[in-house]
Amino acid sequence: MAEYHVITGKCIKALLCLDVCQADAIHPTASEPEMAEVAQLYIDPDRCVNCGSCVAVCESEAIYEVNELPEEMKKFAEINTAFYKKK
Ligand code: SF4
Question: Which fold does the domain 5-85 belong to in CATH?
Answer without folding.
Answer: Alpha-Beta Plaits (3.30.70)
